[in-house]
Design brief:
Keywords: Lyase, Thiamine pyrophosphate. The chain has 816 residues and is of the alpha/beta class. Helix content is 35%, strand content 13%. Helix 1 packs across helix 3.
Length: 816
């Protein structure tokens, strides 16, 4: 941390800070209301007002007040600071700040630093063809879209991890403080190490109101509030009031004290004599009126300091002359003639409070993390290869996610300050525990002799909160570092809205040339719906797949590796790309191994492929009687087993077996950049042969993906259909009719021709299902031939084999 001795606020500095704050408030009100006459060089008229008044005034003056004082701190200390606004609907204040600092014009040259630029700035706010009302991806200096409340602190701490010289000022609105994710994120100081991490300064902004009612913390006794935060391990510093200039002096003193305490904590931790004890970090509780400096009374009702100031305090200014006069008086109360020159440029008094260059909050490279991003050092995949040959294919099982654990272990070792795994207490459970060979779990609270792999210097982030894990990684990514969020599949939905927001951020960032691309958000879902048989129905849910499936085509990616080698290749891919949401779904339980490393590289690179060995070998370009397609590990094993059963009994039935590992490849190329070409689609699936598709998630996703392809009615998707309970592994697939026996029946129902013994095989499969149900109830485990199956072990049922030419149409087969 930079020089931490900050002098008291001088009279000149007070004037500068106050002028900057007033200028920001003026610009904020202008963005909400004005489309013309930006400097009030003539009396305000109704035609100067926007036809639709949108935005949030209530929190904005408080956000600008904090920002103004952070600027002074930076000027004295040269400290790197980024600013996270939990109440992100105060976006006009943050846009105004970047405009005053000059960064906005650097990013958007059309919004010039003069009267014409002011007009553009005002007209574009929350307007068609303009910018949103929140502090979003279009706002220089922002790494946090605060429209969805709850994630300010988790993003702030994620930004601070492994960023020892960074201070993250995180404003938590008192409405946001009521949300579950924010409530849990106060615990983040239990994971922040002052030796090698940066600092987070939480600023709880108590302005008293939400949209239409008071907030909980604003109405609590201050002693209760103080006890609450002291219990978490913070030292609260109170600043309360609305009188000026006293509030400037009071807040400046509070900020100086907080900064000096942070510097002392870090200096002690980095001295070499620190014992690893969690420090008591400072936080500021700022209580100011909601809508501070805005209209106090409107139509006889109090607005300033109440929930009425939340959005647009004067909503009838185009029609109501009294409201228009109030608006003009409000704008002139900031004395714009002291803040802006006649040509619209800011005065020297305002500019004096701006830091310079990259030290500007809105221009700090940590808030444009792609500028600081370094590629991960990744070892050659041959070091992680599982040996698979033609003879051993699908003949042995292993826990594939252990390979990913080994890859991440080496990434940790080779990238000691640039990579972290974030996981809700499930690292070992998801078979990723190899990371503990090189680092512990991060933990700043007390430890004891029972604890394992737990220390203040650990860098594996385990906290029993999907929101914290996801939010930490978001902040880590957006400041230019790499990572993985791993969760049980069903509980990926706990933080699904965060995943969706990350996708929207990347999508918008792709259209902003000044936003440098950052490492992708990588999510591993393991302990999947098909293998959470022991936990029961609550743990059986593949919904996140559909969330990512519906993201913009520039962002969303879904990978369904089927074994250790395809997972390794997928990992290399997702850890290397940028501005994507990469969803990788693979179970942690022992599973069949199908492809050699070289085969896996080709398969994952293409995204799909024909497995001749699983279908009818030597089929070549001959048209099959049926195409079996799969996407997902468990369903692929069931489909391979089903194909083996059918080929053994009916060797002349021509089956093409297609596996898809990159789900987006099923799209048409005009719908997705990874979509396979029409000719490739025909090569895989033909144009007219029925396709039986065994899918990891909800079957409807397959129909969505192949929409517009030739003869989509011929695709018969089987997948999870919300049938589950506490049961055996095989019973999970049986309940959803995507097991080998149901698939055999489907093959017989959907092949264009079926040998005579097809009807006998059909009834045999039905009997196997009946046997299964009886067996698991009696023995509490699956049938031996299911548990012990490997490719090549199936023996044909004891009924007459078909004659070579004895084919019958499929019509006589009973339909399921």
């Amino acid at each position: 941390m930079s020089n931490h001795m900050i002098p008291k606020l001088t009279k000149d500095e007070l004037l500068q800070v106050d002028a900057w704050w007033r200028a920001n408030n003026y610009l904020t009100v202008g963005q909400i209301y004005l489309k013309d006459n930006p400097l009030l060089q003539r009396p305000l008229e109704a035609d100067d007002i926007k036809p639709r008044l949108l935005g949030h005034w209530g929190t904005s003056p408080g956000l600008a007040f904090i920002y103004a004082h952070l600027n002074r701190l930076i000027k004295h200390t040269d400290q790197d600071v980024i600013y996270i606004t939990g109440p992100g609907h105060g976006g006009p204040a943050i846009v105004s700040a970047s405009y005053l600092e000059g960064t906005y014009t650097e990013c958007f040259p059309a919004v010039t630093k003069d009267a014409q630029g002011l007009t553009k700035l005002f007209r574009q706010f929350s307007a068609p063809g303009g910018i949103p009302s929140h502090a979003s991806v279009t706002t220089p200096g922002s790494i946090h879209e605060g429209g969805e409340l709850g994630y300010a602190l988790s993003h702030a701490f994620g930004a601070a991890f492994d960023n020892p010289d960074l201070l993250v000022a995180a404003v938590v609105g008192d409405g946001e403080a009521e949300t579950g994710p924010l409530e849990g994120s106060w615990k983040s100081i239990s994971f922040l190490n002052p030796e090698h991490d940066g600092a987070v300064l939480p600023i709880l902004h108590l302005n008293g109101g939400k949209i239409a009612s008071p907030t909980v913390l604003s109405r609590k006794d201050p002693e209760e509030v103080e006890s609450y935060f002291r219990g978490y391990g913070y030292e609260p510093i109170w600043v309360e009031g609305n009188e000026l200039p006293w509030m400037h002096e009071k807040f400046s003193d509070a900020l100086n004290y907080a900064y000096s305490r942070i510097a002392e904590i870090q200096q002690e931790a980095r001295s070499g004599n620190w014992d690893g004890t969690r420090p008591v970090w400072p936080m500021i509780i700022l209580r100011t009126p909601k809508g501070w400096t805005g209209p106090h009374l409107v139509d006889g009702k109090v607005y300033e300091g109440t929930w009425r100031a939340h959005q647009v305090p004067l909503s009838g200014v185009r029609e109501d002359a009294d409201h228009l006069a109030l608006l003009e008086n409000w704008l002139r109360s900031y004395h714009p003639e002291e803040l802006f020159n006649a040509d619209g440029t800011i005065t020297e008094l305002v500019a004096a409070n701006n830091p310079e260059g990259n030290k500007r909050i809105s221009g700090n490279p940590h808030a444009n993390g792609g500028l600081l991003t370094k590629d991960l050092r990744l070892r050659d995949l041959s070091e992680y290869a599982t040996e698979v040959t033609d003879e051993t294919r699908a003949s042995f099982k292993q826990e594939s996610t252990r390979t990913l654990g080994a890859i991440m272990r080496d990434i940790y070792e080779d990238n000691p300050d640039n990579f972290r795994l974030f996981c809700p207490d499930e690292t070992n459970s998801n078979r990723l525990g190899a990371v503990f060979e090189v680092t512990d779990r991060a933990f700043m609270e007390r430890t004891n002799l029972v604890d394992e792999k737990l220390s203040s210097n650990g860098r594996v982030m385990e906290v029993l909160s999907e929101h914290n894990s996801h939010g930490w990684l978001d902040g880590y990514n957006l400041t230019g570092r790499h990572g993985l969020f791993a969760s049980y599949e069903a509980f990926g939905m706990v933080s699904a809205s965060m995943t969706m927001q990350a996708g929207k951020w990347f999508q918008e960032a792709n259209h902003l040339p000044w936003r440098a691309a950052v490492p992708s958000l990588n999510i591993l879902l393991s302990s999947t719906c098909w293998r959470n048989d022991h936990n029961g129905f609550s743990h059986q849910a593949p919904e996140l797949l559909n969330v990512v499936l519906n993201m913009n085509k520039s962002v969303g990616r879904i990978y369904l590796p089927v074994d250790a080698n395809t997972l390794a290749v997928t990992a290399e891919k997702v850890f290397s790309d940028r501005n994507k949401v990469n969803l990788v779904v693979q179970d942690k339980q022992p599973q069949m191994q199908y492809l050699s490393m070289e085969e896996a590289k080709e398969h994952v690179t293409r995204g799909y492929g024909i497995w001749d060995w699983a279908g009818t070998e030597g089929l070549g370009d001959d048209k099959p009687n049926l195409v079996i397609a799969t996407a997902g590990d468990v369903v692929t094993m069931e489909a391979v087993a089903a194909a083996e059963i059918v080929k053994t009994v009916m060797p002349d039935l021509k089956i093409r077996f297609v596996n898809v590992v990159n789900l987006m490849a099923l799209h048409r190329p005009k719908d997705h950049p990874l979509g396979m070409s029409d000719s490739e689609f025909t090569r895989m699936f033909t144009d007219d042969v029925d396709v039986l598709f065994a899918f990891h998630g909800y079957p409807g996703a397959v129909h969505q993906l192949v929409h517009g392809r030739p003869g989509t009615d011929r695709f018969h998707a089987r997948g999870f259909k919300e049938e589950g309970t506490t049961t055996t592994p095989f019973d999970m697939v049986v309940r959803n009719e995507v097991d080998r026996y149901h698939l055999v029946i489907d093959i017989l129902n959907n092949s264009d021709y079926v040998p005579t013994n097809g009807i006998k095989l059909y009834h045999w499969a039905e009997k196997q299902l009946a046997r299964h149900h009886e067996y698991i109830v009696e023995h509490l485990e699956d049938l031996p031939e299911v548990r012990d199956w490997t490719l090549g072990t199936f023996e044909a049922p004891d009924f007459e084999r078909p004659n070579e030419d004895a084919y019958i149409p499929r019509k006589p087969l009973p339909e399921r």
